[in-house]
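Incident review: delayed structure delivery

Summary: a single-chain prediction request sat in the queue longer than the usual turnaround. Root cause was a stuck worker, restarted by the on-call engineer. No data loss occurred. The affected request and its eventual output are reproduced below so the record is complete for anyone auditing the incident later.

Affected input:
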Amino acid sequence: MLHLSNFDGYLAFDEQECRSEGRRLASQYQSAHPFPHIVIDDFLDADVLRRVLEGYPTTEGRKFFDRDQERLKFQFRPQESSSGLVRNIFAELNSQAFLGFLEEMTGISGLLSDPYFEGGGLHETKRGGHLGVHADFNLHGEMATERRLNLLVYLNEDWDPEYGGQLELWDREMKECVVKVEPIIGRAVIFSTALDSYHGHPDPLNCPPERSRRSMATYYYTAAENVAALPKRSTSFQVRPGSRDKADWQIRRYHFVNDWVPPKLQRIAHRLLG
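Output delivered after worker restart:
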């Protein structure tokens, strides 16, 4: 949908096109349920995304998330890839032109991209892995900004629905899954993040051992008038009704300390309750 023009080997978005496309999609995005979001097929050229796949770092010897709430998930910042194209694409997803697309579509002005790629970059989940339903962390520690948007671009060709890995969007009461998205190549999902924007792919992947679920992820922020007044939340996992999901008591203790213990004593409290 969005075109990348070639400037002496560097691929770049056109700001005018980005803003025009953002305005065209604004009503669809802002009226969506269970929270503002949009699913866009053929978001970026599939041939470009296939070249992104070639730039994935190896997972051999790499650490990955391995607990009840998230398992067999790897994350790589763009600078960990030896591919110039990978770095190029992420730079453009952080560019002024692309921010213009997001601002027009979402109605959120003053968006900021994240040069640190905190939690973002190239994601990969292996067979048997999953990411429980959750709401994301809400504050960026380095930039002291508030998280507002997620962008996911999927990279999975010939993905059989029986492999699983569908992104689920849940209602704010955690009563039902409202939207399921197949993670197929070229498909993008953009959604507003809040303390109750619950999403994930909670069931273990059933893909062949040689396959994995891959995606690109970037997150966007706005400056907060008073960051200290905002509740500080880490990734907050939820338990689906009727499931065998396990509550994340470690994070619940973390949030309790942040909300109720004076700031000067929080480090001690975290150590005692950890």
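Verification: The CA atoms of residues 68 and 246 lie 7 Å apart.
Action items: add queue-age alerting; document worker restart procedure.
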